[in-house]
Automatic annotation (TrEMBL), chain A:
Similarity comment: family membership: Belongs to the binding-protein-dependent transport system permease family.
Signal peptide positions (record): none
Domain ABC transmembrane type-1: 95-294
Designated name of the protein: ABC transporter permease
SUPFAM superfamilies: MetI-like
Domain of life: Bacteria
Organism per entry: Caproiciproducens galactitolivorans
UniProt key word Membrane: yes
Keyword Ligase on entry: no
Subcellular location field: Cell membrane
Topology of the protein relative to the lipid bilayer: Multi-pass membrane protein
From TrEMBL, chain B:
Organismal lineage: Bacteria, Bacillati, Bacillota, Clostridia, Eubacteriales
Positions of the ABC transporter domain: 8-267
Protein name: ABC transporter ATP-binding protein
PANTHER family documented for this protein: DIPEPTIDE TRANSPORT ATP-BINDING PROTEIN DPPD (PTHR43297:SF2), OLIGOPEPTIDE TRANSPORT ATP-BINDING PROTEIN APPD (PTHR43297)
PROSITE patterns noted in UniProt: ABC_TRANSPORTER_1, ABC_TRANSPORTER_2
A Pfam family that the UniProt record links to this protein: oligo_HPY
Subcellular location, principal: membrane
CDD domains assigned: ABC_NikE_OppD_transporters
Keyword terms, alphabetized: ATP-binding, Cell membrane, Membrane, Nucleotide-binding, Transport
Family the entry assigns: Belongs to the ABC transporter superfamily.
Gene Ontology molecular function terms on file: ATP binding
Membrane topology annotation: Peripheral membrane protein
Length: 310, 362
């Protein structure tokens, strides 16, 4: 198990750097430079600024300089969004709220999804089952901005239960609507998957044997069904986490949340290399960390993986 | 066999299934008896209703199933004296909590899929014992080790901590058998327990089941489509066709003096090493009837080369040949013409008898 975790962790670190390298190269290929929009600059001045920021050096050399600085905690400065502001100040101040909404939505979505799925599987062909099916179909097929709009219209505008827009003075209350909007897809997918998986586990041969031991139903479900169901559900959680990240771009816009998503879009449009790199780096690290976590969880839950190569 | 104690008595069991095409009548009026310490085999081809019958005994129901009638009287020692219940009318709760695992246990067909992949062998073994025998974890673990030893698994302490995927198919089936026997059941149901195993392992698992049955004096219902297995393990044989038992008797009755043309067919189509190598292996022509349709007369009649006219008109009753041998064929009616079994089969039976005698009747 130790070896398994170490191996996964090593692979994850390598992956992050590969992503960073590819991204660096791709940014370099993007048309224009960070200073294109400033029309009043003469070619000499642009050249001067490039030299100042070190952008005149060959791309590979730049990459290693960037890597070296980054490993020392220096992500560079912004070129044009907020000139010369250190990236760490700019990005990390916005990270908190994005992370908060993402985590809340992830946890809420997984928990509610699991509950719905389990209830539906246990009460198959009842009202609960149909209700879950309706929720899952809606949640999967409607994009998150539709939920964002519906939520802000009904709960924000009509009944005034929650603020329409993000307000940093009351961070918890004002993230309620974005969290719900973002979690809908997770709820739907987790519920649907849990239901299907649990039904197939309950119909499996090993459940027939477990039942033939005369165990009471609650024990059967807790000690045999849920564990086997979780193994498969965990595998779909990773793609869902990706969805939380991409979804956050839209949802942040709808509720004017000052998170990473909106900054990311602006930065790409204005060639602000360091900002794009830093945010991409954060997204990659979060995503890969999530994958690593899932791999480890998988190992804990499934003995076939835990004991694979010992 | 001085005083036989009946523990299972199935009468007129009829079970159907709702399907997209209509009602399938899988079991049509089945009678069967099981006595203490004896092994009863149910033989028949796929779809003849063998598994459905034992699943009713085991209380494994599916949503689309309809029990049309009959009774399954099961007699067991409830701790406070002997008790007889009808397995078809007791509550599912009573079945699950009082009988399953404790008094009736089952060994399933495919050992590769019948153990929970995420739980250790030990835990799966101990679960039932802790519940039914009220053992502590430690006592249960001790007994689990004994059980594994008993079913022939070496290094049992270590195996307790193993997961199913670390064991071979034969080993897993031994574990399944250990689980089934863990709470001293009165009745053990074996649903084709060796079908999924390779031949060398088959014989050993069969021997194991037989040994344990003698040791604990359990009654066993053995389902199989393999006549070789039947000859080896069973005291009594029930031949099943299209949801009915068409011939029943002691193993030697059915093997040495078969009366139903279907049993003749089954025995003739058994491959053996002693026959003439030029002969083609006999097969029963045609297919079993579609149980969606109403069956008129003897279900086997369309495939029966010896069928009489009445076979297509009226269902044959069970004719008694002697106190322990019965068959449902009109050929046994005193009014019907005398039909003998095919010569080839007769020769084969002679050989079997001789082999049996040289093996000391074993």
């Amino acid at each position: 198990m130790k070896k398994y975790v170490l191996k996964r962790a090593a692979i994850s670190v390598i992956t992050v750097f590969v992503i960073l390298f590819l991204l660096f190269m791709l940014l370099n290929l993007m048309p224009g430079s960070p200073f294109n929009n400033q029309e009043k600059l003469s070619p000499e001045q642009i050249q001067q600024m490039k030299e100042f920021y070190g952008l005149d050096k060959p791309v590979l050399q730049r990459f290693f300089i960037y890597l070296w600085n980054m490993l020392h905690g220096d992500f560079g400065v912004s070129y044009n969004i907020q000139v010369n502001m250190p990236i760490s100040d700019m990005v990390f101040s916005r990270l908190g709220v994005t992370l908060a909404i993402g985590l809340q939505a992830g946890i809420l979505g997984t928990l509610i999804g699991l509950m719905l799925g389990i209830v539906a599987a246990l009460h198959r062909r009842t009202v609960w089952d149909s209700l879950t099916t309706v929720i899952s179909v809606l949640g999967v097929s409607l994009p998150s901005f539709v939920f964002a709009l519906l939520l802000s219209y009904f709960l924000g505008f009509k009944y005034r239960l929650f603020p329409l827009l993000y307000n940093s003075a009351m961070p918890l209350v004002s993230t309620v609507l974005p969290t719900i909007a973002l979690s809908m897809f997770t709820i739907a997918s987790v519920a649907r998957y849990t239901r299907t998986e649990m039904i197939s586990v309950m119909a499996s041969d090993y459940m027939m044997l477990a039942e033939s031991k005369g165990l009471p139903r609650t024990k059967l479900i807790v000690s045999h069904v849920l564990r086997n169901t979780m193994i498969s559900v965990i595998t779909v959680l990773v793609p869902l986490l990706v969805n939380l990240m991409t979804g956050s771009l839209v949802v942040e816009k709808a509720f004017s949340v000052p998170g990473l998503g909106s900054l990311y879009i602006t930065a790409i449009q204005s060639n602000d290399y360091n900002v794009v790199l830093a945010i991409s780096f954060i997204y990659s690290v979060m995503f890969i960390a999530a994958m690593l976590l899932v791999d480890i969880l998988y190992g804990i839950i499934d003995p076939r993986i835990r004991l694979a190569k010992e | 066999m001085s005083e036989r104690k009946q523990i299972l008595k199935i009468r007129d069991l009829s079970v159907s299934f709702h399907t997209a095409n209509g009602l399938v009548r899988a079991v049509r009026g089945l009678n069967m008896d099981v006595y203490k310490g004896e092994t009863v085999a149910i033989v028949g081809e796929s779809g003849s209703g063998k598994s459905v019958t034992v699943k009713e005994v085991m209380g494994i129901h599916t949503p689309n199933e309809v029990i049309e009638g009959g009774s399954i009287a099961f007699t067991y020692d409830s701790g406070s004296g002997e008790k007889t219940v009808d397995l078809l009318t007791i509550s599912p709760h009573f079945m699950q909590n009082q009988l399953k695992g404790k008094h009736i246990a089952m060994v399933f067909q495919d050992p590769m899929t019948s153990l929970d992949p995420t739980m250790t062998i030990g835990k799966q073994l101990m679960e039932g014992m802790m519940l039914h025998l009220h053992l502590s974890r430690k006592e249960a673990a001790g007994r689990a080790v004994e059980l594994l030893q008993m079913v022939g698994i070496s290094d049992p302490e270590k195996r307790l901590k193993n997961y199913p995927h670390q064991l071979s198919g034969g080993m897993r089936q031994r574990v399944v058998i250990a689980i089934a026997l863990s709470c001293d059941p009165d009745l053990l149901i074996c649903d084709e327990p060796t079908t999924a195993l390779d031949v060398t392992i088959q014989a050993r698992i069969l021997q194991l089941i037989m040994d344990l049955q003698k040791k604990f004096n359990i009654s066993v219902i053995f389902i199989t489509h393999n006549l070789g297995v039947v000859a080896k393990v069973a005291d009594y044989v029930n031949v099943m066709y299209a949801g009915k038992i068409i011939e029943t008797g002691r193993t030697e009755d059915v093997f040495f003096d078969p009366r139903h043309p279907y049993t003749w067919g089954l025995l003739s189509s058994m491959p053996d090493l002693s026959g003439n190598k030029e002969d083609r292996l006999y097969t029963i022509q045609g297919n079993p009837p579609n149980l969606l349709n109403e069956i008129k007369g003897d279900a086997f009649a369309p495939r029966n080369p010896y069928a009489l006219e009445i076979d297509f008109e009226e269902e044959p009753p069970m004719f008694k040949i002697n106190s322990h041998h019965q068959a449902a064929t009109w050929l046994l009616d005193p009014r019907s013409p005398k039909v003998e079994m095919p010569d080839q089969l007769r020769r084969r039976i002679e050989i079997m008898k001789r082999e049996d005698a040289s093996n000391g009747g074993n």
